[in-house]
Amino acid sequence: MDIAKKYYKRNAFLIFIDPALFMNGMTFLSITAVIPYFLIKLGATNTQISLANVLVSLGTLIPQLFIARVVQGMRYKGVNFTKVLLVQRLIFAAYVFTIPFFAVSNPRAAVIMFLIFWGIFSFFVGTYSPFYFSIMTKVIPYDKRGSLLGNSYAFGSITGLISSYLLNLFLNNIKFPLNYTVIFFVGIFILIVDALLFAIIKEPPDEAIEDDNGIIEFFKEIPLIFKTNKNFRNAVISYVFIVIANVSLSYYAVYATRVFHARPSDIAAFTAISLATNVVSNVILGQISSKFGQRTVLMISTILGIFAGLSVLLVKNMLGVFVAFSLSTVVNSGYMLSSGILISKYAEQSKISTYVAINNTITMFFSTLMFMISGKLIDAFGFMTIFTISLISATAAFLQLKYKVVDN
């Protein structure tokens, strides 16, 4: 019996649990709420807060194609992925223990140290997609992926409400900086447990592809893929607009703090709203993906992205911010759920890691560029500039999906 069929239930359970653990762990390391507020407490500037986002994008951008080439040559991915994840998370755990010693006595040094360790952590993020989609597409049939991941994300969001409650408890009942020490430690611990899952997935061996060409030749292959695979090219263009549109997601908490003087309970509310929104959206979007396809999920998401931009631009109070944040969260959920699955439809199994890496590298290039200039744009023209760009990009993404992208 084929290994994927023999161990389907086991693998499906592990794939189901992974996003739930990951989402709960990242609740405590949220780049959209926890980390911006932590940096603000340390006295960081808008540019430094933007840099934290830039590092996430650069971390996704730089390693993608290099790691995809390595992953493509592996017969078994799971155990190697676990090793990579453990290195990433143990390094950041080392930083967490420095917080009580520097956050108050030398906050400037604390900001710099955070950005260094966060940069290392983010660099490893670039390994996620090539490994993950190579593993997931081997053990889960195409027609089951959308509903399985959608339900998984929803389950993660439901359990994440507990994490959100704990986050609020830690923020309000433990003094700074010990509260963030506890918050980051809990997050990293959950992520370490999550990393171990991939070591016990039963995956069929891949036919290892020996690639003797240098990295330059590997990069030269990219234009050829775009030229010959029109469906992939059109999807990537729409994804570029989506990631630009969702840059605003990282600034709602900062905007609320700078303009409306948001309190710790408001910051915790962002996380709670995110989790509650994910519960509903992922269940619905997962079912939509199974019945109507990944393109439909992405189109619905971009429509909500348009409304998010209108909300934050027209309703200038905390309610408008919360509504925009929740809608942008759906955009992100839809993109996370369906973008990779749709790409897997355009590529052979042996090339999935390469296609995913190409997409992530290109989209993260534009996302990184936006984050690099966003801090300066905010300082010069205000937050409305970023929100306007997001609105325009969401509109462009919808039009590209409607008229150029196919899912049949």
Automatic annotation (TrEMBL):
Residues 13-408 form the Major facilitator superfamily (MFS) profile domain. This is Major Facilitator Superfamily protein. The chain crosses the membrane at residues 12-39, 51-72, 84-103, 109-133, 153-171, 177-201, 236-255, 267-285, 297-315, 321-343, 355-374, 380-399. It holds the Pfam family MFS_1. The keyword Lyase does not apply. Signal peptide: none annotated. Its main location: membrane. InterPro entries: MFS, MFS_dom, MFS_trans_sf, Sugar_transport-like. PANTHER family: INTEGRAL MEMBRANE TRANSPORT PROTEIN-RELATED, MAJOR FACILITATOR SUPERFAMILY MFS_1. PROSITE patterns: MFS. It is a multi-pass membrane protein. One of its GO terms (cellular component) is plasma membrane. It comes from the Bacteria. GO terms for molecular function: transmembrane transporter activity. SUPFAM superfamilies: MFS general substrate transporter.
